[in-house]
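## tool: complex_structure
## caller: assistant
## args:
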Amino acid sequence: MAHETPPVAALATLNRTGVTLGNTRVLSDITFSVAPGEVVGVVGANGSGKTTLLRLIASLIAPDRGDGTVLGARLGTSEVFTIRRRIGLISHIPTTIPELTLEENLLHAVRLAGHETAKVADSLRAVGLEGSSDRKASDSSFGMKRRTEVARLLITKPSILLLDEAISGLDSDAHALIDALVDRTVGSGGAVIVVSHDPLQMEKASTVFGLAVGALTEMT
Amino acid sequence: MSFWSQTMEIARVDMSLERRTGDVTRIVVPFAVIALLVFPLALGVDLSGISRIGPAVFWALGVLFGMQVALRQTASDSPERRDLYALLGVDPAAKFTGRTISGAVLTLGFFAALLVAMVVLYSPRLPEGWLAPTLLSAMLVAIGLTELGTLAGEVTAGLRSRTSLASLIVAPLAIPLIIGGSQTLESVAREATILPWILLLLATDLALAVAGVGLARPLEEASR
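## result:
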């Protein structure tokens, strides 16, 4: 009896998908998929639609043309509400509440996501924030806030990790933490999508696409 | 995480932010007390007039400045934070409820401070047994006002002029709350039943709660 390898279900697919924000068509006819264990890179100039592409895959905006799925949920439908917590997004601006300390920011996110707060101390240690976690986010550097985001994702363990210029402006240690997060996500059967204007940030990507004026072309 | 766990976490952090920023205690309360002082200055030396208008001024200023308490989250709710909450799996209805709880507690505290200031500055002739009905109506007004403010914040999320627009939405819709609050005390003074006014406040609070919880998800999605 012949055994066929079953096709690996893609974690995210876009099929001739388009997005319009206001009166501007930001993405058009995007066809794309990412499989478990895969790192996909997207390179594009400022304003090419990279962030919109990630927000689309994160299910934060809906397509107005074509269709797509993320973790089995159809984009633009209520199905995405149940899978959003399995998506991790690091956007180009770290998201913290300025008045809270870095540890409190992490605790808040971990509690809201329903994870064990006992992991917070270990996670802060893993990203090198054990000595400065009591610092307010408003008094912390960009890199420290970024590390707090990495600490959160170490706990929430997303199935799809979306990195939007995540490495820009980081020192080599913080860069290594993001790399470790990518390896961990891929190693556990997840997928990673990296977008940047800088092709040098695509070192971990097995496939790299170029994004120009909202259209995607495969580069490697 | 359950709906109520998320609700209480959002309320807890919101109260913690107030303790640190002091938006209500350091800004809203002092300005409202200054506004209380301005009315007697405008009326001159008519002490009986000042005494008579005290409760009405309390409710007018209470609702106007209470709007600032209710809308304070609107200014700090960034698109990035909204995205983060969505990806953490926060139920928008839990966010609405949590913010309503913390906002109502703060608004009630603000009303209490304003009430003390009004009694001290205006020496109003208050009827016997006024305190309990006033506190009950103040609590219901605080809840309604915060629900309204949170809902207006969600309706205007993502808009450039959201802070001013949210105030414009809240002000006219707060009219039943002002009427219910002020008429409760009037009824006590006339020795009439306060029940219709309490029912008006309860019905307003309930309608806003249903709208806030029911519309939380669609408004959240539409704001992106």
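## assistant note: Chain B is about 85% helix and 0% strand. The first helix of chain B runs from residue 3 to 21. Handing back to user.
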